[in-house]
């Protein structure tokens, strides 16, 4: 697996583009870039960010894993005017920074600990990785490679998302309507169900079923199983 995040200096080194804070700021245009908040502390940055006089910023959180700050994406996704990105590969981050800088609002970019082997998602639209008729699996960020392996042999469409706010409602609806069954599995590397409301709104006129997989809010709850075996078992059980 591609390791995607470390402390800030290692993040910049691993991207391999000679990036430094000035370069990041250039990619994002005139929008301030706040790099270097571990996701477990990223919510502490929220007050200063919202109080920023310019009104726009790009906040980058690193070191995301299934047991750290699962609620961060849900919180930023609920803020008006914010876009939220969960890249699955280092090569996706430059594009996301440029898009964040060109947009009208602020952005949160969540860098996970582990990434996919190859970059995907050349735009904010969901990318079709595989076509199938038995339902649709939407894999967010670094879950893609695991989802592809976990659903091998199943007649399913697999979509990839590195941007989840704004949510590509048209892309999801098109994939669901093209399948024989309107069954949707949402796999997110953060709080389970974070994008469930977006799925429901995208399919408001389409009778469907949804299974949302992700991490748990309750630290005392059983650890989520987001590995190949766990996702595969959950998908197969849902589609019976």
UniProtKB/TrEMBL annotation:
InterPro entries in the record: THDP-binding (IPR029061), Transketo_C/PFOR_II (IPR009014)
Domain of life: Bacteria
Name of the molecule in the record: Transketolase
Taxonomic lineage: Bacteria, Bacillati, Actinomycetota, Actinomycetes, Kitasatosporales
């Amino acid at each position: 697996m591609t390791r995607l995040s470390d402390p800030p200096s290692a993040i910049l080194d691993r991207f391999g583009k000679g990036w430094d804070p000035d370069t990041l700021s250039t990619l994002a245009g005139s929008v301030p870039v706040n790099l270097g908040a571990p996701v477990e502390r990223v919510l502490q940055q929220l007050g200063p960010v919202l109080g920023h006089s310019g009104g726009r910023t790009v906040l980058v959180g690193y070191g995301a894993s299934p047991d750290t700050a699962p609620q961060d994406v849900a919180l930023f996704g609920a803020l008006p005017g914010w876009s939220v990105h969960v890249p699955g590969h280092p090569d996706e981050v430059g594009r996301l920074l440029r898009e964040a800088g060109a947009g009208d609002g602020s952005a949160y970019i969540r860098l996970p600990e582990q990434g996919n082997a190859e970059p995907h998602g050349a735009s904010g639209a969901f990318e079709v990785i595989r076509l199938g008729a038995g339902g649709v699996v939407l894999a967010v960020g670094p879950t893609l490679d695991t989802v592809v392996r976990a659903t091998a042999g199943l007649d399913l469409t697999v979509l990839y998302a590195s941007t989840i706010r704004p949510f590509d409602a048209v892309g999801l609806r098109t994939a669901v309507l093209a399948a024989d069954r309107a069954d949707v599995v949402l796999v997110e590397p953060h709080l389970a169900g974070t994008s469930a409301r977006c799925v429901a709104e995208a399919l408001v006129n389409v009778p469907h079923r949804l299974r949302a997989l992700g991490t748990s809010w309750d630290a005392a709850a059983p650890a989520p199983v987001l590995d190949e075996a766990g996702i595969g078992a959950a998908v197969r059980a849902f589609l019976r």
